[in-house]
Specification:
Length: 339
């Protein structure tokens, strides 16, 4: 039947019970599947490490709780599993001449307590390959490279996390976002500290915490900084979605008015580029021909991708050794795949 027993009524089956508890967990690829992963908690849950001084080598595994979706049935429900204390695992001895990859696995079983953490031993090869999982209802906690020379194994760990329904899901980075997000799903990027949400089509940045700090504008040939007393050098920074450009520059050669060229003044990181070209009127040294007032002059500059340049067919000349102010700012539109 399509209709399943409601949670905790008489006659409920084990899979009905898993479905009932699983509906409180963030969904996976269908409305009745839960998102497999570790439950975030303090104390480095599920951390795998080489035990210092162990001989033969042993691995330690920290306690954790996790959600393991039944992968053998479309509506088998989610298993909620617990490891309540540190356990030690002993890899097989290394091979004589070839490295291998072992996996530390959390697995739902049909024996014992119904849950097991253990090593799946790989086959020595060049290059070594990850072994296949014999049981799909499992979670890889770590990949362990066992070296033929007997040196300390290398532990690589990037375990997916899970969250409650409607909760904010922590992810390591863009590559570990959920493969089947729902509209309105939120996640916290641990690599950038940004908050993202899914709009039904793509990931968007909800809160951008980027702060690059001030970085130098990389000046092109024929341009030098102009740094009078208490003024900053030519610099750029990104704070969230706002980019600020500051400082002043001087050309070391003459640039005539109405030139067909657009001489580059300098460049900055592409992560700060505006989504479309930006044209601005910049203050310039007062003696520039065509000064807009008796006390100051102006010149047109443009910001195109990550380049600051004199505008094409600029109505004003740019004689050498006069200054141009670069004070401006713009918003950066976040792409579908946040960086």
């Amino acid at each position: 039947m399509a209709e399943r027993h409601p949670g905790w009524v008489t006659g409920i089956t084990d899979s009905d019970a898993r479905l009932a508890t699983g509906l409180l967990i963030a969904p996976d690829a269908s409305p009745v599947r839960a998102l497999t992963g570790l439950r975030p908690a303090p104390g480095a849950p599920g951390l795998v490490a080489v035990k210092p001084g162990s001989n033969p080598v042993k691995l330690t595994l920290n306690p954790f709780q996790a959600v393991l979706q039944d992968q053998g049935s479309a509506a088998g429900g989610a298993y909620l599993v617990t490891l309540d204390s540190v356990v030690e695992l002993t890899p097989d001895p290394p091979a004589a001449s070839l490295n291998r990859i072992d996996l530390v696995v959390a697995e739902v079983t049909t024996t014992g307590t119904g849950f097991s953490v253990h090593l799946v031993t790989g086959t020595p090869a060049s290059p070594p390959q990850r072994p296949a999982l014999p049981n799909p209802t499992s979670l890889v906690l770590a990949q362990v490279t066992v070296f033929a020379n007997g040196s300390q194994p290398k532990v690589d760990q990037q375990v997916p996390l899970t969250t409650a329904l409607g909760g904010i899901l922590p992810v390591a980075g863009a590559a570990t976002r959920p493969q089947a997000p729902y509209q309105g799903m939120y996640l916290h990027r641990l690599d950038s500290n940004n908050l993202e949400f899914h709009d039904g089509t793509r990931w968007r940045t909800a809160v951008n915490t980027t702060n690059s700090g001030w970085v130098p504008l990389t000046l092109s040939a024929n341009w030098v900084p102009f740094v009078p007393d208490q003024f900053p050098p030519p610099q750029v920074r990104r704070v969230g979605n706002l980019v600020q450009l500051r400082g002043m520059v001087q050309p070391t050669v003459d640039f005539p008015a109405l030139s067909d060229a657009s001489p580059h003044i300098g460049t900055f990181p592409t992560t700060m580029a505006p989504s479309y070209p930006k044209l601005l009127i910049a203050a310039a040294q007062p003696r520039v021909t065509g000064a807009s007032t008796a006390d100051g002059g102006w010149i047109q500059i443009a910001v195109v991708t990550n380049v600051v340049q004199l505008q094409f067919k600029n109505p004003q000349p740019a004689p050498k050794n006069f200054w141009i102010s670069l004070e401006t700012s713009w918003l950066v539109d976040d792409p579908a795949e946040a960086s």
